[in-house]
UniProtKB/TrEMBL annotation:
One of its GO terms (cellular component) is mitochondrion. The keyword Oxidoreductase applies. It is an enzyme of class 1 (oxidoreductase). Residues 236-402 form the Lactate/malate dehydrogenase C-terminal domain. It comes from Musa balbisiana. InterPro entries: Lactate/malate_DH_C, Lactate/malate_DH_N, Lactate_DH/Glyco_Ohase_4_C, Malate_DH_AS, Malate_DH_type1, NAD(P)-bd_dom_sf. It comes from the Eukaryota. Residues 92-234 form the Lactate/malate dehydrogenase N-terminal domain. Its EC number is 1.1.1.37. Pfam families: Ldh_1_C, Ldh_1_N. Residues 1-16 form the signal peptide. NCBIfam families: MDH_euk_gproteo (TIGR01772). This is malate dehydrogenase.
Length: 412
């Protein structure tokens, strides 16, 4: 993978904005930020940042409330939803699996972005109602629906970002690995269509198990002759979102200040929050490290059990995926300081795929941040070594699935 490894990254003072941790520019809200923090998550890094918003979708009270929660000393101006207008640069986004538990809230959040001009919603059924519902929201993105395999190609033509939450959700007692046989085939079929219709698009894989579905996507794209490792992302943002939330709660920190890198993969012990790298610098006892690490690793199960058979982590996953989409759109729009954790092809370890911070630019991944793996604690070092065999097995399982399918097709 022809990428540059970043050994050190210096991020300046940043002022947060009230949209998913990313940096959309909107009209009608001027705000100042008197407090700065260090963070990578799709935010513009600069020594001094003055933020002028171009759009607001929450109205006066909603903006005031949200801003008060996240950013100190904000002075909102009155702005109304019908004042929204598209940015000079805008992009087409396709959501494959748009009628599902993740797809619906994800579609809503993407519809709210001023960087989106067209939102293409695809599913095998029930997507027309979702599209009709979202189309009534008076934000700029045009909403189009596509149903079934016969309309998939049309859905994908000319899109800049493809997001894939399609597949079955986890149920009580199920592991991500239990989802493999169903979701592997779904992802393979969708990626084949992406390869044929929008091979240059950014591809965001949400469908679990991500540790296997991303390698599946890579192998399919290779077979089609259009694989670009810089544009294939496994969305692990939810692990970061959870880590930030749990650490802020545990240590009584302002959530907007907290940033915890999460490396490895996206299932069980392969999820490794690097608490020693928490920003702002925070001290943890050994018990706190173990407790937080285990909770972050098992947070998906926590939701599955709490929903008692009624679903899995759909809302938080949609939020995290929308944050990653927004970061990607800002990178495509020319922002030079977009960093997110993602499961990608990587030479950071001996594993062919690995989740870590990456710098995203107009053409995809520009660099993989290596500094987070330097100076780890003894606990983190042992955990990193412990996750590798399981992650390797999941990666190989995904690759083997595609190769087996190809052999079966040739012999049929």
């Amino acid at each position: 993978m022809a990428l540059t490894a970043l050994t050190t990254v210096s991020i300046g003072s940043v002022c947060a904005q009230p949209w998913l941790g990313a940096r959309p520019k909107a009209s009608g809200i001027g705000f100042t930020c008197s407090k700065s923090f260090n963070v990578f998550s799709g935010l513009k890094a600069a020594s001094s940042v003055g933020i002028e918003a171009d759009t607001s979708f929450l109205g006066k009270e909603g903006n005031a409330s949200l801003q008060a929660s996240f950013v100190p000393k904000i002075k909102p101006k009155q702005v109304f939803l019908n004042q929204l207008h598209p940015r000079a640069s805008s992009f087409k986004v396709a959501v494959l699996g748009a009628a599902g538990g993740i797809g619906q809230p994800l579609g809503l959040l993407i519809k709210m972005s001023p960087l989106v001009s067209a939102l293409h919603l695809y599913d095998i059924a029930n997507v027309k109602g979702v599209a009709a519902d979202l189309s009534h929201c008076n934000s700029p993105a045009q909403v189009l629906d596509f149903t079934g395999q016969s309309e998939l190609a049309k859905c994908l033509k000319g899109v800049d970002v493809v997001v894939i939450p399609a597949g079955v959700p986890r149920k009580p007692g199920m592991t991500r690995d239990d989802l493999f046989n169903i979701n592997a085939g779904i992802v393979k079929t969708l990626i084949e269509a992406v390869a044929d219709n929008c091979p240059d698009a950014f591809i965001h894989i949400i469908s679990n198990p991500v540790n296997s579905t991303v390698p599946i996507a890579a192998e399919v794209l290779k077979q089609k002759g259009v694989y670009d490792p810089k544009k294939l992302f496994g969305v692990t943002t939810l692990d970061v979102v959870r880590a930030n939330t749990f650490v802020a709660q545990k240590k009584n920190l302002k959530l907007v200040d907290v940033d915890v890198p999460v490396v490895g993969g996206h299932a069980g012990i392969t999820i490794l929050p690097l608490l020693s790298k928490t920003r702002p610098s925070t001290t943890f006892t050994d018990d706190e490290v173990e407790e937080l690490t285990l909770r972050i690793q098992n947070a998906g199960t926590e939701v599955v059990e709490a929903k008692a058979g009624a679903g899995s982590a759909t809302l938080s996953m949609a939020y995290a995926a929308a944050r990653f989409v927004e970061a990607s759109l800002h990178a495509l729009d020319g922002d030079r300081d977009v960093y997110e954790c993602s499961f990608v092809e990587s030479d950071l370890t001996e594993l062919p795929f690995f989740a870590s911070r990456v710098k995203i630019g107009k053409k995809g991944i520009e660099a993989i941040v290596s500094s987070d793996l330097q100076g780890l604690t003894e606990y983190e070092t042992k955990a990193l070594e412990a996750l590798k065999p399981e992650l390797q097995a999941s990666i190989e399982k995904g690759m083997a699935f595609v190769h087996k399918q190809a052999v079966n097709a040739e012999s049929a």
